[in-house]
Amino acid sequence: MMGILDSILGSEKPEAPASGSSNPFNMSVSFAPLRLNAKKSNSVSLVVKVKNVSASPQLVSVDALLPRDAMLGFDPPCINKAIEKRVGELRPGASIEVSIPVWANNQTKEGAYPIDITVFSHYIGYEKVLSYLKKSTSLRAV
């Protein structure tokens, strides 16, 4: 039953790194408000909570990806289907919330739309990736 509520309300339980993994993050995802209105220009915030569980500071970025054929976007005209938020350095044990607006327009149909979220740990600059944690969720338009 909790799986159904988690899919509706967003999971507050952080996703733990896989055992034996060198992943330095825990990540949880939620939406505020919970869903979009179909056939109307409006937005929700995709809230990604990231916690550094490693013993060293991490240079962090968060990427989100929407389906190409969906009338959703990271901008009001729903053109941009991918976004990267460069968070900066996250100290050991620290956590941060990244809010990403997801927009619908008057052509958005009702349904559930998948969103892929990836949190990256970078080396020196944002060009090199040390590790990443991926999570998929879905956003409902009603």
What does this structure look like?
This protein is mainly beta and 142 residues long. It has a single domain (2-18, 30-141), classed as Sandwich (Immunoglobulin-like). The chain contains 1 helix and 9 strands, in the order H-E-E-E-E-E-E-E-E-E. The protein has one helix spanning 2-9; strands spanning 11-15, 25-32, 42-52, 58-65, 72-73, 82-90, 95-104, 111-123, 128-141. The chain has a 5-stranded antiparallel β-sheet. Strands 6-4-8-9 form a 4-stranded antiparallel β-sheet, with no helix packed on it. The protein starts with a helix and ends with a strand. Residues 15-20 have low confidence and may be disordered.
Task: Give a summary of the structure in a few sentences.
This protein has one helix at 2-9, and strands at 11-15, 25-32, 42-52, 58-65, 72-73, 82-90, 95-104, 111-123, 128-141.
Can you tag this structure with a few keywords?
single chain; 142 residues; mainly beta; Immunoglobulin-like; 1 helix; four-stranded antiparallel beta sheet; five-stranded antiparallel beta sheet; 6% helix; 9 strands
C-alpha geometry = elongated
Measured distance between first and last alpha carbons: 22 Å
The strand line-up of the biggest sheet is: 1-2-3-7-5
Determine the structural class based on helices, strands and strand pairing. Answer: mainly beta
> What is the annotated CATH architecture?
Sandwich
Number of separate helices: 1
Number of folding domains? 1
